[in-house]
Design the sequence.
């Protein structure tokens, strides 16, 4: 049994390494590993083996996910990873003609962003904390739309601040997309204050209380104090650019979107905006 478990771990690890060679992010690779191990555990409890999966195994697993109230989107995502793994094993036939739950069609509004009063509340509260690092982090996320993983990976020399301009260089963004994003005056101001307060030689732009590079989880905890998620700050950045008349191609480049269709969602009205449009249309 131990030999079989080691063999399964080796096969999954080989697949993960193959995907890592394709420049998948570490977050994506962790999701792949977690989902494949969940699939393997299900197979073991049902008399199967991930090394010898069959089409019936895959179909029954999809059915079990439905019975556990997994959404159609979640099931589709898990099936996509299993399909990649089947291709890696040279067993593409096991994922052919699999019945999956249908997606319910819905109107795609823009991802949720922050209203101006909510944005002002967050900025006000973080500034009241007097923590120069946290103030700089929140302003950088809001003013550049960088992902938390990108922010945590930044070094001091990725930041350029001049008297009237500035920029942040994302050298290894999601999908290995490098980009340079302008730094608005507020972000420059707070970054300068924070960096001037530092007396260490650590190259990381943001450091923890232990003088080490800040982690993604630490940034998430900072944001949780103000009841905001990093995605909301990123969505707000994209929505503000679209609202200011910046073209979608430029917004995609600034946000590091590999697929411009992701950016197009921000051009759709939000749910609250839809309500205002309808109220205006039917007002007497």
Sequence:
């Amino acid at each position: 049994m131990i030999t079989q478990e080691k063999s399964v771990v080796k096969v999954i690890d080989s697949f993960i390494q193959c995907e890592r060679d394709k420049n998948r992010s570490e977050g994506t690779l962790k999701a792949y590993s977690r989902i494949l191990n969940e699939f393997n555990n299900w197979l073991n409890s049902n008399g199967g083996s991930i090394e010898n999966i069959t089409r019936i195994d895959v179909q029954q697993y999809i059915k079990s996910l439905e019975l556990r109230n997994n959404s159609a989107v979640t099931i589709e995502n898990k099936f996509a990873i299993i399909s990649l793994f089947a291709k890696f094993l040279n067993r593409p036939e096991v994922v052919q003609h699999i019945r999956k739950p249908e997606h319910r069609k819905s109107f795609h509004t823009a991802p949720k962003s922050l209203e101006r009063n909510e944005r002002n509340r967050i900025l006000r509260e973080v500034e009241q904390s007097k923590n120069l690092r946290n103030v700089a982090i929140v302003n950088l996320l809001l003013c550049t739309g960088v992902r938390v993983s990108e922010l945590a990976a930044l070094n001091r020399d990725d930041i350029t601040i001049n008297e009237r301009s500035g920029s942040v260089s994302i050298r290894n963004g999601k999908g290995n997309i490098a980009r340079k994003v302008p730094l608005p005056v507020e972000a420059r101001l707070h970054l300068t204050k924070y960096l001037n307060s530092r007396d260490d030689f650590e190259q990381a732009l943001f450091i923890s209380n232990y003088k080490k590079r800040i982690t993604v989880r630490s940034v998430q905890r900072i944001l949780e104090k103000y009841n905001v998620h990093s995605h909301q700050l990123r969505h707000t950045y994209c929505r503000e650019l679209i609202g200011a008349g910046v073209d979608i191609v430029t917004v995609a480049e600034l946000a590091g979107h590999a697929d411009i269709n992701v950016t197009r969602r921000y051009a759709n009205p939000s749910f609250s905006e839809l309500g205002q449009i309808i109220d205006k249309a039917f007002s007497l």
